[in-house]
Amino acid sequence: MNFRIKILDLVRKTNQNNLYNSFIENQFKKTEDSIIAYQNNAKEKILQHHIKHNKNYREWLISKGIDLTKKIEFDEIPIINKKDLLVIHPFIEKFIHQIYHTGGTTGTPFKYSLSRESVSSLWPNLWRAFNTCGIKPCTPIIMIAGPSLYNNRSIPRKIFDWINRFTVISAFDLNTDKLQNTYDIIKQKNIKGIYGYTSAILIFLRHLEKNNLYLDLRGIFSTSETFIPKIRTLAKTYCNCDVFDIYGANDGGICAFECQEHNGYHISYERTYVEIIAHKIILTDLTNLSFPFIRYEVGDVSNSNEIIYEKCKCGSSLPKISSISGRVNSYITDSNGNRIHTEFFSHLFNKDETIIQFQVSEKFNIINVNIISDKEDIKYYQTKYNDAFNKRFIKKIGISVNSRIYKNGNEKTPIFIKLD
């Protein structure tokens, strides 16, 4: 294992081996007080670094009324978002280790950079998440990836995958042949885990169910989309393993993951300081010397308004976010102007085992809930849920069963999509 990570470090000029070892140790040995002290020191250091070295960010702070001649409390720093960063272009060239381009869930093109320190932390934090079910670094894994990863099949990327023992499958067009090929690859290569889009994992698991196929995996890791509870049941039956949801945002530096308790997302506190303000998730990348993700509004929301610091039953001391509800734009505007989060539907459908997946769409001011189910009975769902819809919404909510599930351009499946 270690020799592979050392090769990766040599190729990428990173420090992943040492970081992974320290991250594994930190999650069980660090105390709440030591974690808070570390983050208080780190967030002050990264702020002062960018005030000193980042001219564009410094000028932006001044434009927001921050007096840099006085001592600044961290919570006085204005929250910054993607639009702000696109305007002020706050790169520090000498600290750039890697450039990233993303449209993200918003579809807005966004270019940012990571310093060597942030790049080094990326995979060790994911490896720590994989370690939840005993998957060590460079264990054979299949990744069901979107275009940001799958389309970047450069020679260096292929070498990286080979060393890391990743097999990458496109999340596009998961037809029967591709799904069966994925199953065959898992068997042939002795794959131990799956990491990919939640909806793509669901499609694969339903292929196993339909064809009565079984695997013996250590774990499945879903990411990038709202979690679908049905995949946990299917995984236990057809893959003999649990499913762990991962919340990640490279812009902002967060990797947060479920443990066996499934009662929150453990935060990679070494790289990321997390605040939740009015349910919005605010991130500070504590290690990025090249680009100021400082009090950055990433665009995701949580049901809770606080970070949990008490030790988890799994033994980990890592702080937790209790839940990830989705994107800030996952709201439906009712006829009276009230904004209702799509989490309403998640709670409503949570215990209905007949519902495999659902998607809410809006077209020409008409709301429809498309339910994916083996129970092809639209009257059943209308009878069961219309009263709840009518109590919560002024707008009429329509129901369809097993209609088309829409995807964004990045092949992610949003829980709510506007079609007009």
UniProtKB/TrEMBL annotation:
UniProt entry keywords in alphabetical sequence: Ligase
Domain of life, source organism: Bacteria
GO terms assigned for molecular function: ligase activity
Organism: Mariniphaga anaerophila
Protein name: Phenylacetate-CoA ligase
